[in-house]
Design brief:
Largest sheet: 8 strands, parallel, barrel
Number of helices: 9
Shape: globular
Strand order of the largest sheet: 1-2-7-8-9-10-11-12
Distance between the termini: 17 Å
Radius of gyration: 18 Å
Number of strands: 12
Length: 244
């Protein structure tokens, strides 16, 4: 079972920051999950969970109200600043898998293709200049229009569909999106869902798993990966379970 650092080692360090990503690597996470929003003024992706800034910075308003230079000067705490996706990938530098969760509500194909072209460019630059391979990227989203279009525009990259429910028909869902993984919330997970997904050749990556009870459930029903805010603590807990 893979351990994916949710927004980096965000239980101890500012989420989606260089420090959280570096610590996730030091804590031997199998991968890093980070969130991105498309920034219209710069045509780049910004690494943050919410498009509004007051949750994690001292600024107010939405990211598109600011220039790129203004955004990347905003403090996140512990001497960290808001990042572009390019800055994050340059720091991670191919040392681990990266799950890029794209925050989007758009269903317009022309806009989706614009966003996917920008994402393709940034991933290709990371592969060319920062030691990544294409196999180290997973593109995920709650926006299944985005996932479906990703398979058309970026076919060589792994895609994962985020969900917060247990779908009536997993096969129909998977066939429509042609994704490699389904990433459900821990609250809507059961053995039947995991078994059906595996029968269809799908991996199951579960969010957000910090409690020992939830880790145990994920082990018992044999999920493929978990997203956690505390990669080191989860790693130690799993090691102790395996030793006992």
């Amino acid at each position: 079972m893979k351990i994916i650092a949710h927004r980096g080692a965000s239980g101890e360090f500012p989420e989606n920051s260089l420090l959280a990503f570096e610590q996730a690597i030091l804590q031997e996470a199998d991968g890093i999950e980070l969130d991105v929003h498309f920034h219209n003024p710069s045509q780049q992706f910004i690494v943050l969970h919410d498009q509004y800034l007051d949750e994690i910075t001292n600024a107010k308003g939405q990211i598109n109200q600011y220039s790129l230079d203004e955004l990347t000067q905003l403090p996140l705490g512990q001497e960290q600043k808001l990042l572009t996706l390019s800055q994050a990938l340059a720091t991670i530098a191919g040392r681990t898998l990266v799950n890029i969760e794209v925050k989007s509500a758009c269903s317009d194909k022309s806009i989706l293709n614009l966003h996917l072209s920008a994402l393709k460019l940034q991933i290709n630059q990371a592969i060319e200049h920062h030691g990544f391979s294409s196999r180290q990227f997973v593109i995920s989203s709650f926006n299944h229009h985005f996932i479906k279009q990703s398979k058309i525009k970026l076919p060589k990259y792994t895609t994962a569909a985020l969900i917060a429910h247990n779908p009536l028909d997993v096969a129909c869902f998977a066939n429509e999106l042609k994704c490699k993984a389904i990433n459900p919330a821990i609250e809507c997970l059961d053995q039947a869902f995991v078994t059906k997904a595996h029968q269809l050749g799908l991996e199951v990556w579960v969010y957000t798993v910090d409690r020992k009870e939830d880790i145990d459930i994920c082990q018992q029903i044999k999920v493929d990966a978990i997203f956690t805010n505390f990669p080191k603590k989860v790693r130690n807990y799993l090691s102790n379970c395996n030793d006992s």
